[in-house]
Amino acid sequence: MKKQSALLLICSFLLSVQLWAQERTIRGTVISADDQTPLPGVSVRIAENESVGTITDIDGKYELKVGSDATALIFSFVGFERKKVAIGAENTINVSLRTSSLDLNEVVVTANAIVREKKELGYAVTTIDGEETTKARDANVLNTMAGKVPGVRVTSQSGSLGGGAKIIIRGATSLSGNNQPLFVVDGNPLSNSGFNGTRNDIITGGVDVGNRAADINPDDIESISVLKGAAATVLYGSRAKNGAIIITTKSGKSLKGSGKKTAVTLNSSVRFDNPLRLPDFQNEYAQGDQGNYDAQNFANGWGPKINGQRVLDWKGDSTNLRAYPDNVKNFYETGATYINSVSLSQGDENGDFRFGYTNLSQSGIIPNSSLERNTFTINSGRQLTEKLHMQVAGSYINTVTEGNARQGGNNPSTTIALINGLPRTISQEELQNNVVDEFGNPYGLDGNRTINNPYWVTAHNNTLNDVDRFYGNATLNYKFSDNVSATYRLANDFYSDVRENVMRKGTLGRVNGEYEVRDIFYNSINSELMLNVSKQLNEDFKFDGLFGHNVNQRSVNSTRIQGADLLAKDLYTYANAQSISNTSDSELRRLYGLFAQLRFGYKDYLFLELTGRNDWSSTLPVDNRSYFYPGASASFMFSEILPESTKEWLFSGKLRANIAAVGSDEDPYRLNFFFTPLSDAFTQFVPNLLYPHNGRPAFAATNTIPNANLKPQRQITKEFGTELIFFGGRLRTDINYYNIQTKDQIVQLTVPQSTGFNLKTVNAGTIQNEGIEILLSGIPVQLDNGFTWTSTFNFGSNKQIVKELAPGLEEYTLTSGFSGLQIKAEEGEEFGLYGGGYVRSPNGDVVIDETTGLRQFESGVRLGDIYPDWTLGINNEFSYKGVTASFLIDIRKGGVIYSNTVQDLRFSGLAAETAENGRADFVDEGVNVVRDGSGAITGYKPNETSVSAQDYWQQISNNSLAEPSTYAADFVKLRELKIGYNLPKRWIANSPFASVSIGIEGRNLWLIDSEVPHIDPEVNFFGTSLTGEGVEFASVPSTRTIGFNLRVTL
């Protein structure tokens, strides 16, 4: 027995010696792949047994003993990609980790500026890094979001300087026109109005005045969180019923690892703009009619073929006819934008401070147009006592825009319509050099002095927009204990918007001249008090509570003074006007709210959130001004309960669901009768019609019956989704389904004229929006030499249905305009475009008049939906050793657009297609009606009646017929292209620079595919706030931008 025991002891000793001999120590350093700095606290584990491991020290170094059976190490760190590295023969393994946005444990900014872990959220939130807004940048920060968020559609309105951008989240839900989200900067809700806050929010006088979200400076943005559903936004109340854009600005911090207390960042960009797309013109035929030359017939290309014949031109001079193919193209200039910014930042454990200044100086593609914007920002925080912290943030912005072109076609100063109508035989140089005659009077392009030279308009009929804006807030946070704290935030948003419009004395169509100044003053005060409670109830359960009170007051005051019949040229004062009119408008509204949010967590993988808010609105009747809306959401991190072995392929997985309601009020003064001042702002279609009349102010009684029993509009949202991360962060999916029911719409319905009124305000209508959002992001290629290819797909599909309108009402007009166009809500349909369309046979063939050979048409035809069926953004980014390159493809499918530019060019015989086949007579494809002796239709037969080219094009392009100029609005665009290079640290190691990067950037570079001729299908005449889309009317062409960037950190 003793021998056996001794033998066993000897074997055990020899075995342990053998095992000890096979064990070895692996050492190494872990650094960040982005800036090559050491990463402390990185977890280093053995792949076969992740319970065995260590973490890196302050210098990023580690040591770990491994056995002979260990084949790989796993490196993981919060905010970085999980990496598996094989163990080879070497005992040193150095690793670089790349930052990752694919971790569900990341934090995001949610409603009321609350920072939450993303895994807790039961609703969809998409975050855009602030750096994305300064690469391939745009003067309007909204345009930089296009194609980057599923379910979010951003549409640039025109190529005007400071032009507006419309943003819609999950489709339009309102019949009243307010379908844009709430913008919140550092907890401060901001106005995004394009006009005066509540009413008449269109491109005033044909000028695209933009939208106020454009005031937000991209250089100051740290991150953008997009909250899409009611469950995410319920704490903001009724203002966020269409979603919310939560912007967090940069705060102070020192330069990591440099030892410097103050970091200085310089950012400089220059870019150049040109029209993305201009019409294709014919260059074979001169101005005139029915093949006969007529110099007086401007904007008409139905004259003789251009063969160098001798004629009298528009000035009465003898000349040889020749075409100038680039006369319209040469009118547009190359716009230039210079953006220079500087920021100073510092921070420590006691506080932080950041100051920023940005200057944007821009010249446009329209002659004599410019934009100058100066932005000053400050963000400072201080730990006043152990328990009290204060944060102050504010921005002042001054934007001056001059010379933006008037759009549309019924204004004597409409630049785009004038230049598009230029005959093919007039050169741009000739136009520019013959603005006035020897007496200083303007030449008329038609010889009769009735049509202005566009260079007269750009030189003398100026538009000016001067905006001064301040927004900011002060926040106090007091920590009563580790579990209880209180936050109070007082915020203000104020701007004055001065708009000056000039028509110089002598302007054709306004020969006596006009001068108008409109002042708009907007002011918002937002007060918010919140109590935060957090308690770990036991080892498994955690509770967080938020209880708050909110007061929001908004006021708008607008004055408009117009002087007509000017005495002297170039003197723009009211003393120089023989007729002066003065109108004013003011609005005041107030909203009180109480809200609560209760959050429960179980074992850090199961979360439940209950929310509720009650609002009291000053714009609703006393009995109905109080309304409550609740919400509930849940998330389940199911990957946390799966075996650890699943981490190899399923890094993280989450299911989420929510249901929430939100209510909303109405514009002020809908409860009583009121009088409105009349002006000629919208009477440009009627010559010599001016208000006030004979110098006397004029007011009109409202034609709408108010409703003293209005109820708040209600919206109920249901949402289900999942977030999955595979293969250590190499692949991510975020899939979401939503259903939104919006009821009790506040609308104005037509009443019989016998009542003495035209409209009445009622609660009516239900709209359903249903859709799917998919985010798919992956890293197809990631090589050891540092090359990485990242690809992201953002897909959003929305189906809108008008479920019901008022009893007995089958359709409701949302917006109406020229050429018989209307945008309507019709039961069982999406919002649609209606106008003059072809008469068709039961088989769908176009009916043609057998006598004339011309197509027949009728009014009120549904031409199509105004919104796309789906959108897709495809972003690919490549990086290699400091070089990054990326491009973004933006795709939209569905919807229609009507183009007045297409219509006018064809009617005038200037479009390229009007010269096809030598303008020979032809037989149009269609059918003739066959009737019996009583006139009843008995059938149809193929058309055999010929028609002239001019009669054909002018008939299908007249203002009563919209269908021939309406097209599918689908497009594919190269939205962004970026190439950047970060200089290696070793190149600047002995310089004062901490980092240096250079880049080439481009925006809106290529319209890859579209069936719409002559224009960019993305433009929109109706502006940013009206429900209307799908209409273009002599719009300023959108621009293609190419630029260069230099960024330096000291």
From TrEMBL:
Sequence ranges assigned to domain TonB-dependent receptor plug in this UniProt record: 118-244
GO cellular component, one term: cell outer membrane
Annotated ranges, domain TonB-dependent receptor-like beta-barrel: 441-832
Keywords linked to the UniProt accession: Cell outer membrane, Membrane, Signal, TonB box, Transmembrane, Transmembrane beta strand, Transport
Database matches in InterPro entries: Beta-barrel_TonB, Beta-barrel_TonB_sf, CarboxyPept-like_regulatory, Plug_dom, Plug_dom_sf, TonB-dep_OMP_SusC/RagA, TonB-dep_OMP_SusC/RagA_CS, TonB-dep_rcpt-like
PROSITE patterns: TONB_DEPENDENT_REC_3
Transmembrane segments: none
Signal peptide: 1-21
Subcellular location field: Cell outer membrane
Membrane topology: Multi-pass membrane protein
Family according to the record: Belongs to the TonB-dependent receptor family.
Protein name: SusC/RagA family TonB-linked outer membrane protein
Organism: Luteibaculum oceani
